[in-house]
Structure formats: C-alpha cells, structure tokens
Design brief:
- It is found in: Cell membrane.
- Its main location: membrane.
- One of its GO terms (cellular component) is plasma membrane.
- The protein is α+β, with helices and mostly antiparallel strands and 232 residues long.
- The chain has a domain of 108 residues: Alpha-Beta Plaits (2-Layer Sandwich), CATH 3.30.70.3270.
- Helices cover 31% and strands 14% of the residues.
- The protein contains eight helices and seven strands; from the N terminus they run ααββαββαββαβααα.
- The strands form two sheets. Strands 1, 2, 5 and 7 form a four-stranded mixed β-sheet that branches. The protein has a three-stranded antiparallel β-sheet with strand order 3-4-6.
- A hairpin with a 7-residue loop joins strand 3 and strand 4.
- The two termini are 56 Å apart.
- The chain binds iron/sulfur cluster (SF4) (2 copies).
- The site of one iron/sulfur cluster (SF4) has 13 residues, from helix 3.
Length: 232
C-alpha cells in the first residue's frame, strides 16, 4: 500500500537541490548587478521619450467615439427619444435600469418613460442597452468622470441622463457606421425612423413594392446578410 502523502512537505520544489529543471546561475547572474544596470538604462531611455501621461484631473482625456462611457438618454428636440419599450432594462445584465412607461396621445411617439433610472453602482458599461435599443435612444457617452458620495447620488434619473443629440453626434455617427457595416445592405439606418408611432405605422408604410417584389427583396437582403463578414 502506498505511503500517505505528506501535504505539509512537498516532495520537490525550486529550493530542492535535486530539482531537475533548476538551472545553475552564472557568476554574473549571481551578482545581480548587470540586471540592475539594465533596468536603470531602460528607465533613463524612457525619460527622453515623449510623455503619454496626462495631469488628470486638470487635463482631461477626450476618448474616441468607440469608447463606452456612462450610458445616457438621447434628447431629441427637447424630449427623450425613448419609447419606454423596456428592452434595455431586460437586456441589462446587472439589472441597473428601471423605468415606468406612460402614454401621451397628443405625442406622435405615444409612449414615453414616466421615470427612467440607471443605478450607476450596478452599471458595468457593457453597452447591451445601446445594442438592443430600437430607437437609438440610449447610447454610451464619453463621460468616464463619475463620482458620487452616497448610494442615492449614484442613481441617475431621467433629467441627469438626458443629453442633447448634438452633444452625442460623434457616438451616433459611429453607431450608424458600425450598424450599417454589421447589417450590410440589409440595414439602412434612417434617423426619421427614431420618432415614429405604431398608430401611424400602417398609414405611413408604403414601400411601393408588390408582395412578390417584397419577398424577392427579402431574399436578396438575406443573401447579402449571409455574405457579410459579420455573419460568420
Ligand atoms: S451599459 Fe450594460 S450594465 Fe450599464 S445600463 Fe447598459 S446594459 Fe446595463
Ligand atoms: S432606451 Fe431604448 S430600449 Fe430602453 S426603453 Fe427606451 S426605447 Fe426601449
């Protein structure tokens, strides 16, 4: 019967003289000085290279459009684009979004969020809310400078979340470009689709195509989508 293994005393480790893969250090390696001088030389070289650090917070970094900062609601002509469909709240992995829908029959958009909140302590900046939003109503902004002193302050309400679309132009243009590439010819993003009404949909929807032509168009679009590098 095999002797019980003594877990307190490992049989082989790097301090063991018999450890077969241990390498003998040369005289210079044992001195350590060459390695210290190499490190000093590397540090000296860095001192003369262009600086890449910023004096934050006096100097602010302007992130590129691909950057995912805090999610914001797009304000279009003085009101939110959001139609309170709830998709973003459903897709949000840490359940950071809560909202309540309301209706306004005088508004062509009909539905709007009575309240819309994002708990920024939960948000993980994944961007899923932006991905699923059918109205391009919630997007990831460039804002990374997020500070709060209490849990209550970390819950951003609708007023704090709303940002005019003019200030989000770079991100909106980036998304349009990215989505059009993603869907190939199939997806031609139209901004005017953002503000629409289900009530008016059938009245306004007229592609000018017969049913057969629409089916042919769909088949063509499906083929384009299948050939797209994004589909692989
Ligand atoms: S970025 Fe992600 S975690 Fe944050 S609100 Fe959107 S879906 Fe939720
Ligand atoms: S932000 Fe977009 S996905 Fe979220 S409720 Fe509003 S319209 Fe729907």
């Amino acid at each position: 019967m095999a002797a019980p293994q003594n877990l307190e005393q490992p049989r082989a480790n790097t301090l063991n003289e018999n450890f077969e893969r241990e390498r003998e250090l040369s005289f210079l390696e044992n001195l350590y000085l060459p390695e210290i001088f190499k490190a000093l030389w590397y540090t000296l070289k860095q001192m003369f290279l262009p600086k890449v650090t910023l004096r934050y917070p006096e100097e602010k970094w302007d992130p590129p459009a691909i950057f995912r900062g805090r999610p914001v609601l797009v304000e279009d002509e003085g009101k939110e684009r959001c139609v309170a469909c709830g998709l973003c709240a459903r897709a949000c992995p840490p359940l950071a979004i809560s909202m309540q829908a309301n209706e306004d029959s005088d508004d062509p958009k009909e539905r709007y969020p009575d309240f819309f909140e994002i708990n920024m302590l939960r948000c993980i900046y994944c961007g899923y809310c932006e991905e699923v939003c059918p109205e391009e109503a919630i997007v990831m902004s460039k804002d990374y400078d997020i500070v709060f002193e209490s849990r209550e302050e970390a819950i951003y309400d609708k007023q704090r979340l709303l940002v005019p679309k003019e200030d989000l132009k770079e991100r909106l243009d980036f998304l349009r470009n990215y989505r059009n590439r993603q869907f190939g010819q199939f997806w031609d993003f139209q901004e005017e689709n953002n503000i629409h009404s289900v009530r008016d949909r059938d009245r306004e929807f007229n592609s000018g195509l017969s049913l057969v032509e629409m089916l042919e168009q769909q088949e063509h679009n499906d083929n384009v989508e299948a050939e797209s590098p994004w589909a692989r």
